[in-house]
Fold Polymerase/histidinol phosphatase N-terminal domain-containing protein.
Amino acid sequence: MGKRIWLLPEQGTFYKANLHAHTVVSDGKLTPEEMKREYQKRGYSVIAYTDHRVYRNHAELNDDSFIALASCEVDIDGPYKTPGDYSRVQTYHINLYDTRPDYEVERKLKSIMPECEYGDMDGINRYLEEMRELGFLACYNHPYWSLQTYDDYKDLKGLWGMEIFNYGCEHDGLYGYHPQSYDELLRLGNHLYCVAGDDNHNLASFDDPLCDSFGGFTCIKAESLTYEHIIDSLKNGHFYCSMGPEIEELYIEDGELVVKCSPVEKIYVKTEGRGCHKKLAPAGETIREARFRLGGTEGYIRVDCRDSHGRHANSNAWFLDR
C-alpha cells in the first residue's frame, strides 16, 4: 500500500458553514443573532455575514459552538441598459472573508468598496490585490445571476475561490449552479476553490417553499471550531461544498482516487479536458464509494457527487502537478 494523499484531511471535524448571508445590516430580514439561532438549529457552526457594501465583524456571536466570519459583499455595477431597470445590469459581486479581523480595523469599517468602474479589469485586479494585502480571501459570486460571460471573468486575478452554487440565485430563476464557470477558470490555470452558500435574505418564512436558507452549504474540515482554525482550513482548501450529499473521504492511493460519500446515484471526476471518470448506480439503487485509476494526464481532478434529488456535492479541484 502506498502513502495516501488526502485531498480532504484525514484528521479533524467537519463544520457546516453558510458563506453567503445578508442580515438587517443591509437588505436581509433577520438580525445576526436571529440568523445564528436558526442556522444552529439545523446543524450549522459557521456563518459569514456578507452584508452588502458593509464590513462587519460580529465577534460577539462567537462561542465554543459557533464562529461568525468577519466579511462583506462588494459589487461593481455596469451601466444601465434601460433606465431604472437593474434586472439588465451586469455586475461583479465579490465576497470578502477576513483572515485578519484585528488588522486595519478602522480602514475596513470606513469603506472597502471598490472605486473602479465596470470593464476596468486592471482596476478590478488592483482592488483584489489590495484586499488580499488587507487579509481578505476574495470569492467571485454567481456569474449567471450577474449576467456575466466568460469575457467578464477570464482575466480576473487573485481570486481565492468562486461560488459554484448559490441557493438564493437558484430560487430567483434557476441561476444558481455554475460548474462551467468554475472549470473555465481552472482551465485558464487559476488554482482556486469552489464554495456553496445560501445568499439568504429571509424575506420568506422558514416554512415557505421560497425560503432562501439551508440549501447551499460548505463543509469545512478543521482541527477545532476556532476562528483561526476555520480560516486556516479555508486558506488550504480543506472543505467541500454541497446542496445535500456529503463527501466523507477523498484521497489518492496507489494511483487511484478514492471517493467515499453519503448515498448518491452518480460519482463523477471532472478533469481539465473532456475525459471524465465516473461510476453510476444501477437504476433505483445508490452507491457510497468509488475508485478511479488516474492516468496522470488529467491536469486537474474534481469530484461531483449527485443524489437521487439532483443535488450535487463538489470537491475542490486538485492539480496533479502539485
